[in-house]
Amino acid sequence: MAEITAETAAAREGSIRRPNPYREFFSRLFREKPLGAIGAVVCLVFLFAGIFADVIAPYGFNQIMPINRMKPPSWQFWFGTDNLGRDIFSRILYGARLSVIIGLSAALLATIISVALGIITGYLGGKVDMLIQRFVDAWMSFPDIVILIVVVAVVGPGMPQVIGILGCLYGIAGSRIIRSAVLQVREQSYIHAAQSIGGGTPRILWRHVLPNVMPPVIVLFTTRVGAVILAEAALSFLGLGVPPPAPTWGGMLTGSARNYMYLAPWMALAPGICLTLVVFSINMFGDALRDLLDPRMRGHR
Amino acid sequence: MNVNRLRGLAGASALSLALASGVAFAQTKMETPKYGGTLEISTVYATISALSFDSYDWPWKHNHDTGAVYEQLFATDLSKAKSRGGKASFTADAYIPTDLIRGELAEKWEWKQNPLQLVINLRKGVMFPEKPGVMKARELVADDVVYAFKRMSTSPKATGGYFDYVKDVKAADTHTVVFDMKEFNAEWDYRFGYGYYSGIIPKEVVEAPNGGASNWKNINGTGPFKLTDYVQGNSNVYEKNPDYWDKETVDGKELKLPYVDKVVYRIIKDEATRVTALRTGKLDVMELVRWQDVETLKKSTPNLKWNKWLATSGTFLSMRVDQKPFDDIRVRRAMNFAINKQEIIKAYYNDNAELFAYPQHPEYGPYFQPLNEQPASVQELFKFDPAKAKKLLAEAGYPNGFTFKTQVCSCNADHMDLLPLISAYLEQVGVKMEIQPMEYAAFLSAMTTQTNTAGYFMNNGHTNPTTTIRKSFVPKQVWNPSQWNDPKLTARMEAVYKEPDETKRIAELRAMTTEMLDNAPYIWLPTPYVYTAWWPWVKGYEGELRAGAVRPGPIYARMWIDQDLKKKMGY
Amino acid sequence: MQGYILRRILALIPTLIFASFIVFITVRLIPGNIIDLMLSQNDVSASKQTREQLESLLGLDTPMYIQYFKWMGALLFQGSLGNSLWTNTPVMDEIMQRLPVTFELGIMALLVSLIVGIPIGVYAALKQDSTGDYILRTLSILALAIPGFWVGTLVMVFPSIWWGWSPSVRYVSFSQDPLAHLGQLAIPALILGKAFSAIIMRLTRTMMLEVLRQDYIRTARAKGLSVGTIVMRHALRNALIPVVTLVGLQAPLLFGGAVILEQIFVIPGMGLLLLEAVGSRDYPTITGVFLVIGVSVVLINLLVDMSYGFLDPKVRNR
């Protein structure tokens, strides 16, 4: 009997030693980083709002109701209506969807480029690294917006273009962070071990290097989402963002809203607040993530 | 010319007169102008810096930036302006009706037959002021006009054929210029009289060191102002030319022009900033206020004075007639029936638009034939009739509609707002539109290289009653987005240019306009109203904009500032 | 130290060559070329002949690589970026007029962000995890999240409606009226510095925390030195090295932010020039602006690298 008790106690102890990593992560997030947790929750709310915009939105995003031109917020129109009589609340919801699509896909593209470039240059080193690094230097010496202006002039405005450009832009810039992480991993003993038993380079990269640079990759991805959403808004301001009638927040913030800032301030207020709130939450969440996953990256952006 | 047409003509002119007096503000007796002060203006082209200071480079905006410095043979007769108690509003961009032309450098002119000649007597005593390092003060003579014409007509950037109607130009004596003509040209007064490429630039400026006439520091003309500073993307500063020849008679007294000491063009790209600058009195005049901003300004700044004018360009969705499905006139007419144009005026423009004002402008007098005088087949194009649209589409073989691409300039905020609206109407008859926004230069070049998509959303300037038809519907013209190509129409167009009798030209152009409206190469859309706003201390002004081809110089010379009033109002 | 600087400068050469490629090629990819734009300035169509004449007049009829070598040659041997295709004036002159304005705006924004960011960062580090620390960090992330053009528009529009006041739209140069000039740049500099000060604050805080944990600080504390002395004499100096790196890395951000703010506040700097040049397809101007911005950033980073030598003795001996 005594033995059995001891056994179960040991089993219990074992189960405590092998906790669910996700649950542990989230409990740490909520315990240690309450602000980051709030950020994550806000992001999730917007994510769901975007996904279920069709269901939630009371009106279509381009449903023009001339009689309801520039109505202030009310029970019928929660966030008011714009100069064409479109419901701003509905447009915000559909806009959340676009922001999610643009933010996630451009950040994903950026991360893939960063990882590919970072791992290849960091692991291989040598002349290739030196050449690519000089290119990255040159690339990074141009301001994002300057490159964006010129490139959008080349390919024309539009959602795929915006995603592609922002992805490349942030991807090349971010490769530095991944590269430095790879440089550290490269000198670890398990890599040397893998090399000595004759593992092929692609296999080593995939099985050993990549998993060990995941924390900075995840953090990089998160911060990029916020940066992309902001950059799209800036492009909209210059008339180079995702074109109407697509209800992007950036577009809603910069189009007619600026003409009617005095008569209908809610036109700019709602998208402005949502944009700020989302970027704010993502950054909060990203900060917390960084502190929890990868303390080395503190201070980088 | 048949009787019906004549009656139409008479009706049209009567109506346009009625319109003009209806729009005219209460005519105030002209106050005696006071001298001095600086006029800060955001002009019609508030966002565009000078592209070149030499018309030899063939830039259209040259006249706008140097029109107060260089003078031309003709200008508008500003004594007939609303601000002088007259009726003319002078908002057309590049057209002066024959009865409103005044000789500027030309004192009188005369046509002679066999051989065909235009003899121009120049005004005496017109002086080029001294410009250190460029030229000494001297009188303008016939040789200057000959020089300017020869230089312009041989510019490598000149539009082919632009001055071909002229055989030769000679100076008969110091103040007489003789144009030997190959043939008559309906636009003779426009092309080298008051047009975009008509400024008289003296030889000394062209030959000046450091870039000649293209360097702003060198330019020097006989006009009311001198250009004294220029910052690209920010401002052009003009100072009074004390030696200017022209005078104005007010209450029997002769007053030397110009009245103000300085005129400053402010280039402000950002619309919100522009409106703010007007509101806080940092601008005295804003020549172009979009109707979207008028509501706010009237509420926040009730002291401003206003002039409302009809845009000098037509808005439309062009359909390429050399491609399916728009090669079928039934499809093109169906597209027109599918759009509720009245509702667009109400819902989108908030009543700030006119249903019918293109290709001819209501200000073109007899050239303009109002909608209610057009044949029924033209009138019905402006009525919303989705059932008929569907029927026509079915007849043309598109019972389930089709999909087409439309290019639009992302630089035009109005168009970017309006196009989704059009798209929503078309969807109701089963036609789907893919919107392809482009940045300005790329957009423009799609049309000029004839690589534009089936749909092309734009606005096109009226220019003048002849050009508006020629540039839009004659093949190989760069502003012909529908790629219209009808040899019969082209031949008629050529004949119009050679026709010396204006009455005959008017009748023919009216007929051609009606025919083109009926052919529906475009979805004809309403023409918006635009506003000009100025502070009450700006006097001698009722919103006049152009005294030639986009040339406001002579108008600014006649505006004055009531500085006491300005102070009293706290600015 | 000299060897280090020399190596750094040599490493710049390939970077600059890449930069010139990027600039030259990207610009020429833009559709809607200048010929079309020039020809459509007037309403009458141009014949084929005029088009070819124009092309050779503008030097656009030679293959791109020849254009590139001509361009580089003129730049290296004559310091010329060519003439503007529209105004026919040297691009270099125009840029030299604009560059100081944008630099000034950038430096003012930088000053703002350093003055705001560093003390707050130090404070937040010293009071780690206090309510004040939380509030300041939250505010800093908020400052990062608000788009600059939005704040710019608010500042432009609302004061004019409420009090009839607005920032000046008349650009005055420093030589004309130094005070008015600085006053004019102050508001955009504040807005531009907003995001940047948040970044600096966050980095200062992190670095201070790390430095404060070091042994020598603990020793200093044990010796009974006051917090102020420790921060000023030991901690800050070490914590600032990465902050200086950051200044170099973020230099493009200052240039970039200027594009939008120059437009809102009507400041004739590089950003406005670029927007105009792209709009009118003035290739020499676009390439010139693009290149000068890139080279400026590269040089700023070089300066930053060299300044380590003064801040950090370890680098000096490398």
Topology:
The complex is a heterotrimer of chains A (301), B (571) and C (318).
Chain A: H1 2-17, H2 21-32, H3 34-51, H4 53-56, H5 88-124, H6 126-140, H7 144-155, H8 159-186, H9 189-196, H10 201-212, H11 214-237, H12 249-254, H13 266-293
Chain B: H1 3-23, E1 38-42, H2 62-66, E2 74-76, E3 101-103, E4 106-112, E5 117-122, E6 127-128, E7 138-139, H3 142-153, E8 166-173, E9 176-181, H4 188-194, H5 203-206, E10 225-231, E11 235-240, E12 247-250, E13 253-256, E14 262-266, H6 271-279, E15 285-289, H7 291-300, E16 305-310, E17 313-319, H8 329-337, H9 341-348, E18 353-354, H10 376-379, H11 386-395, E19 403-409, H12 413-427, E20 432-438, H13 440-448, E21 455-461, H14 467-473, H15 487-498, H16 502-519, E22 522-524, E23 527-534, E24 538-539, H17 553-557, E25 560-561, H18 563-568
Parallel strand pairs in B: 1-14, 1-15, 19-20, 19-21
Antiparallel strand pairs in B: 2-3, 4-5, 5-9, 6-7, 8-9, 10-11, 11-14, 12-13, 15-23, 16-23, 17-21, 17-22, 18-23, 24-25
Helix pairs in contact in B: 8-11, 15-16
Chain C: H1 2-29, H2 34-39, H3 48-57, H4 64-78, H5 91-126, H6 131-145, H7 148-163, H8 178-212, H9 215-222, H10 227-249, H11 251-264, H12 270-280, H13 283-311, H14 313-316
Helix pairs in contact in C: 1-13, 5-6, 5-8, 5-11, 6-8, 7-11, 8-10, 8-11, 10-13, 11-12, 12-13
Quick gist of this model?
By secondary structure, chain B is an alpha+beta fold. In chain B, the strands form 7 sheets. In chain B, strands 1, 10, 11, 14, 15, 16, 18 and 23 form an 8-stranded mixed sheet that branches.
What does this structure look like?
The complex is a heterotrimer of chains A (301), B (571) and C (318). Helices cover 73% and strands 0% of the residues of chain A. Chain A contains 13 helices and no strands. The model of chain A is unreliable at 1-16 and 297-301 (pLDDT under 50). With 571 residues, chain B is α+β, with helices and mostly antiparallel strands. In chain B, strands 1, 10, 11, 14, 15, 16, 18 and 23 form an eight-stranded mixed sheet that branches. Chain B has a five-stranded mixed sheet with strand order 20-19-21-17-22. The relative contact order of chain B is 0.17. By secondary structure, chain C is mainly α. Chain C has helices at residues 2-29, 34-39, 48-57, 64-78, 91-126, 131-145, 148-163, 178-212, 215-222, 227-249, 251-264, 270-280, 283-311, 313-316. Chain C is globular and about 85 Å long. The model of chain C has no long low-confidence stretch (mean pLDDT 79). Chains in contact: A-B, A-C, B-C.
